[in-house]
Description:
Distance between the termini of chain A: 55 Å
Oligomer: homodimer
Number of domains of chain A: 2
Largest interface: A-B, 40 and 40 residues
Order of helices and strands of chain A: EHHEHEHEHEHEHEHEHHHHH
Largest sheet of chain A: 8 strands, parallel, barrel
Amino acid sequence: MAKRTLLSFSPQIKVIDATLRDGGLVNNFYFQDDFVKKLYQMNLQAGVDYMEFGYKASKEIFDKTKFGKWKFCDEKDIRDIVGDNNTDLKIAVMADVGRTDVEKDIIPKDESVIDMVRVASYINTIPAAIDMVEDCAKKGYETTVNIMAISHANDSDLEEALELIGNSSADGVYLVDSYGSLYPEQIRRLSDKYLNMAAKYGKFVGIHAHNNQQLAFANTIDAVACGVNYLDATVNSLGRGAGNCPLELLLGFLKNPKYKLHAVLKFIEEEMLKLKESGLVWGYDIPYLITGVLDRHPSGAIDCIKKERKDYANIYLELMGLE
Amino acid sequence: MAKRTLLSFSPQIKVIDATLRDGGLVNNFYFQDDFVKKLYQMNLQAGVDYMEFGYKASKEIFDKTKFGKWKFCDEKDIRDIVGDNNTDLKIAVMADVGRTDVEKDIIPKDESVIDMVRVASYINTIPAAIDMVEDCAKKGYETTVNIMAISHANDSDLEEALELIGNSSADGVYLVDSYGSLYPEQIRRLSDKYLNMAAKYGKFVGIHAHNNQQLAFANTIDAVACGVNYLDATVNSLGRGAGNCPLELLLGFLKNPKYKLHAVLKFIEEEMLKLKESGLVWGYDIPYLITGVLDRHPSGAIDCIKKERKDYANIYLELMGLE
C-alpha cells in the first residue's frame, strides 16, 4: 500500500457521517423525515462511506414518547428512508453500554439493512462492550468499540482496554475526545498507541472529535497523518455542545476524488440554515472553550448556553470550582 | 534550556496581540479610544508580551481622512493610550513594503514608545523588506520580516528568502498563512524549514495564522510543538475575513502561569460582544472554508459575506472558476 501524502490519498480512509446520531443529542432525535431523506441523498452524492442513523436505545430503559425515532433506530424506520439500501453507503447505528439490549433489539444481519454496530463505552465497562460486540459480530455485523472520554483514562488502563479489544471480534476501535480537551500533540500520542494495537491484531482505528477548542477538524486530520482511517464528522458540526468535526472541512481536505464537497455545501444552504433559523443551537462558543481547557464534561457549558449566559469570566471561575 | 512539554512551558514563547492591527482590516481602524485603552489594560493583566497597535502607513499614500488613527500609529496617538508604557508589555507596529516610508515616519527608538517594527512583505519583495529592517534596526528597534501568503511560495524561493533574512539585522522571521489554506502537516514542514535557518543565524521564528478552515489555533500550537516561539493571536479571532488564532484559546493552552485567561474572558464579555452587536462581522464561515480549500486570497469570500450570500454551492463553483 502506497503511503498517503498531502497530494495522494489512502483508499483505506472511510468517512462516517454522524450528523443524525450526534445531532440527535441536540434535538432529542426529532428530525423531520424529509431532512433525513435529504441527508441520506447527500451522503450518497458526497461519496460518504457510512451514515450513522442514531442509537439502538432500549425502549425498556427510555420512554419512546420522549424521543424522536432515531434514538431507537427501528429497522422499519431506517428502511422507510433507505429501502433496501442497494448503494455503496453503509448504515451504522450506535449501541451504548447499559442503555441497549443488543440480544433483544439487534436482529440477525441478513434480516437487517444495518451494516455496522458501534458500541460506545467508558473505559471501565469494556468487558460489557465486548459482550455486545461478540453478540453483534456473531449476528454478522461489522463492529467497533468507541472508548469515550479518553482524556480521563490513564495509560495503563488504556493499554489493558486496547488489549481486551484487540482480542475481541471488534473490527475497529475508536479514539473519542468526548470533552474536546485534547490537543494535537496528545491526539498523535494516543493515535500511535491505538495503531500499535491495531497493527498487532488486524483492527482499524477511528477518531471522533469534538470542537470545544476549535480542534475537532485539526485533531481528525492529525490522526489521519498518523494512520487513523475511520473519520467521524457531521454536517456543519451539528452535534452535542460545541459539535463535531465538520464534514465539509473534512471532505475539502481528503484528496480521494470520490468525495464531493459540492453536495455538502448544497445541503448546508438548503437544510442546515433552516435548522439554525428554527432555533437549534450548537457549535463552538466561549463556554465550551472553558470546559475544554478544564477537561470537563461539556454539560456545564451546555447549561450556560441554554441560559444565554455571557458572563464568561464568572463561568470560568465557577467551572473551576472557585466560586 | 529544558525542552517544552505539554505540562511545562518555554519562557522563550512570546504572545503578540494583533487585535487592533488585523482587526483594523475589518473596521478601517476606527476603534474607540476607550476600547483601545481597555485592550491595553487587558493585555497587561493577561500577561501578553507584545501589543501590536496597527500599521505605520504613509500618509502620502493613504488619505488619512478615510481611516482610523491605527492605520498610521502616530507616536502621539500611542502615547495617549500607554503614556511612557513603563510596563513589561512591549509595543509593536507593522510596516508594509511599498506602503510605509520608514525613513521618514519611523523616529529613533530612544524617542519612541514603540519597541518592535514588523515588516510585512510578499516573497518577491524581500530585498525591500530588508532595507526597511536595516533602517529600523539602525534606529534601535526590534525587527521582524513577516513573509505573507507563504502557501503560494515555492520551496527554492522560500529557502533563498530565508537566507537573505538570515543575513539581515532582523531579529525574527514570521510564517504567515494569509489564505488560511495550510494544514498542520504543512505548518510542521514549513516550521522546520524556518527553524533550521533560525538556528543557523540566531533568529527567532513566529507564526501568524488565519482561521478560514478552523485551523488558526491548531496550526499555531502545532508550530509551538516544532519550536516556533512568537505567536500572533487576536481577541475572539477579530481580524480580516475568518479572523485569527483566538487569544483566549492560545492562553488556555500555554502553561506559563503569567498568562491569565480570566482577563481575556472578561474583555470578551465587556467589549467584544458589543463590537459584534454593533454589526461588525468577522470569523469563520462557509465562504472562507471555500477560499481556504482553494488556497485563494479571502477577498472573494469577504465579498460574499458582505452581500450576505448563502448559496454556498454556487459560491464554490464560482470561486473555482467553473461558473
